[in-house]
Amino acid sequence: MMVQLLVGEPMSLSRAIAGLLVAISAAACTASPEEAPQDEPSSTSPSPTASPDPGEAVLDAYEGLWGVIVNASRTTDPDFSELDNYAEGQAAELAQHGLGAEAEEGVVARGAPTHDPEVTSLEETSAEIEDCMDSSEWLREDAETGELIEESPSEPLLRKVEATAGFDGLVWRISEMRIYEQGSC
pLDDT per position in the chain (185 positions), as tens? Predict the structure, then answer.
């Protein structure tokens, strides 16, 4: 399975998520795996249909997807049970496959990325989202020791993210997601 991470540069799905999580390894964090931060997104995230405004509902789905990704990145036994609420197709596969590969390697993440998404196109059943994600506070670490895999960055790690959402008549879900190289936004 291939995913376009950079224009014209195909990359395997596990490398795509690994690349994303590499971008995560930013600021210093010395918490051991059992000292998970208390600011984790709630497992009772708002429904992607919680907002009557379609633009807000699209952003709710996008943010919900990232909440599932962040929660799943914190363990070597990721739970994707909520993923269907926010994603389908390539976006769901990207999250599951990439995070599963990291978990198999004994890599987890602490903290969370920050996002600045905006809906750039909105039609009756489809929408496009652009985001500039900063993953400098989302750190990769060894699941057993809690030690960082890479050094903490001294500057923000900014990556452009483009996503496509679809509306099935009931809810908006992210169907495609492209994550670009560091420094792309």
Answer: 333 333 333 333 333 444 444 433 332 233 333 333 444 444 444 444 445 799 999 999 999 999 999 999 999 998 889 999 999 999 999 999 888 888 889 999 999 999 999 999 999 999 999 999 999 999 999 999 999 998 888 899 999 999 999 999 999 999 999 999 999 99
Percent helix, strand and coil across the chain, each rounded to 5? 30, 30, 40
CB atoms within 10 A of CB 115: 17
Q: How far is CA 144 from CA 52, 105, 141, in A?
A: 44, 11, 9
Encoded tokens for 31? 């918490």
- Residues 82/66, Cβ–Cβ less than 8 Å: no
Residue spans of the domains in the chain: they are 2-30+42-182
Query: What residue type is assigned to position 150 of the chain?
Result: E
Phi-psi region for residue 106, left (φ > 0), alpha (ψ -120 to 50) or beta? left
Q: Evaluate whether 101 touches 110 at the Cβ level (below 8 Å).
A: no
Q: What is the pTM of this model?
A: 0.74
Determine the topology of domain 2-30+42-182 in CATH: Nuclear Transport Factor 2; Chain: A, (3.10.450)
